[in-house]
Specification:
InterPro entries: Metallo-B-lactamas, NAPE-PLD, RibonucZ/Hydroxyglut_hydro. Residues 94-305 form the Metallo-beta-lactamase domain. The protein is α/β, with parallel strands linked by helices and 354 residues long. The protein has a single domain, classed as 4-Layer Sandwich (Metallo-beta-lactamase, Chain A), CATH 3.60.15. The chain has helices spanning 149-158, 171-177, 258-266, 282-285, 292-301, 324-335; strands at 6-12, 27-29, 36-39, 76-79, 85-88, 94-97, 108-109, 114-115, 136-138, 163-167, 185-188, 193-202, 208-218, 238-243, 246-250, 269-275, 304-310, 343-344, 351-353. The strands form 4 sheets. The protein has an 8-stranded mixed sheet, covered by helices on one side. A 7-stranded mixed sheet has the order 11-10-9-6-5-4-19, covered by helices on one side. A two-stranded antiparallel sheet has the order 2-3. The longest helix has 12 residues, at 324-335.
Length: 354
């Protein structure tokens, strides 16, 4: 378990956002305009009609750095399956994105023994106690393959210093269902920015060490809900995290016009963590999940210098073959005349340094 240390979260004013963001068109208001009832997608790329063979996937046990001081000037990104990444920034900040460590990404019956949805066919490469530290947990949205109550409970137990960054409306789930202290949960709207400041220890002279990360909530196109009764009640988001000399953009969502705005106003990014799976049949999936071809467009629009694919190789959520996304990603890069070394995939549990 992490020893306790001081953290503060400070809202940042005056950062760049498109002029239309002030109208909050993605908010659905009550009749008198006083309350946000739910959220919606506003781009034409959202289609309102939205209401395989198994192959072995490269898998290994991850190796994490034992101390914050051992990072040097490199950013380390470790893929833990699906859209879960563990990021070790050169400043020492450590961020966990969309942690789901269970076999089923669905509601569970009989005390959690049986899940209603697909079962994981590639096991988690580690457990939550194996992570050396978790300073920030960032959640994209409420679907079960991105938000897990048992995983959040484990983080609370083993990493009690963690701060949670979530979209609007999701704070109540964390405070009431997961029983996280309200002061550790930050709800954010699109184009909001906060600074996370840590005081995890002292240097050799006995002086307190402070390290900082900027966390930005950015637009996305998707939906949310954990039951038939809470559809779109919480906001879905993409995210950017920067600390020290490195910046990361994280999304699991399909192509939409917001990516070009994000690249223009917040890019470039050193690394993009971009989805490449769960895209067939396109008639139904194109408005919610990116294909490998879409992923290359997202990579370019957001002005990422390098990219890693995710959202494949963990659960069979849709109808494409499990090993198809990396192959189509290579073909998409080749067809656009792009260097295949700038955007690729790694195995579950593997770490890439940037």
């Amino acid at each position: 378990m992490d020893r306790k240390y001081l953290t503060t979260v400070t809202k940042v004013a005056g950062t760049r956002a498109p002029s239309e963001s002030r109208s909050k068109e993605h908010h659905v208001l009550s009749s008198n305009g006083s309350n946000v009832l739910r959220f919606r997608n506003t781009h034409p790329s959202w289609d309102s009609h939205y209401d395989g063979s198994i192959f072995p996937i490269l898998f290994r046990s991850p190796s994490f750095l034992a101390t914050r001081q051992s990072l040097g000037d490199k950013l380390r990104a470790t893929w833990l399956g699906h859209s879960c990444y563990y990021l070790e920034f050169p400043s020492g900040v450590r961020v966990l994105f969309d942690p789901v460590f269970e076999d089923y990404c669905s509601p569970r019956l009989f005390g959690g023994l049986i899940g209603l949805g697909p079962k994981r066919y590639t096991p988690p490469p580690c457990t939550i106690p194996d992570l050396p530290a978790v300073d920030a947990v960032v959640i994209s949205h409420t679907h079960y393959d991105h938000l897990s109550a048992p995983s959040i409970a484990q983080i609370k137990k083993h990493h009690p210093n963690a701060q949670y960054f979530v979209g609007l409306g999701l704070g109540n789930w964390f405070t009431k269902t997961a029983r996280i202290d309200r002061g550790k949960v930050t709800e954010m709207d699109w184009w909001d920015d906060v600074d996370l400041t840590l005081a995890p220890g002292h240097n050799n002279k006995g002086e307190p060490i402070q390290i900082q990360a900027r966390i930005s909530c950015l637009p996305a196109q998707h939906s949310s809900g954990r039951t038939p009764f809470d559809k779109d009640n919480t906001l879905w988001c993409s995210w950017a995290v920067s600390s020290g000399s490195k910046s990361v953009y994280i999304t699991h969502l399909p192509c939409c016009p917001s990516f070009a705005q994000i690249g223009l106003l917040r890019g470039p990014f050193d690394v993009g963590l971009i989805p490449i799976g769960a895209y067939k049949p396109r008639q139904y999936m194109s408005c919610v999940h990116a294909s490998p071809e879409d992923a290359v467009g997202i990579f370019r629009d957001t002005r990422c210098k390098q990219g890693l694919g995710m959202y494949w190789g963990t659960w069979a959520l849709t109808f494409e073959e499990v090993d198809e996304p990396p192959r189509l990603l290579r073909e998409a890069l080749r067809s656009r005349g792009m260097n295949q070394k700038v955007f690729g995939v790694i195995g579950i549990g593997e770490t890439r340094e940037f």
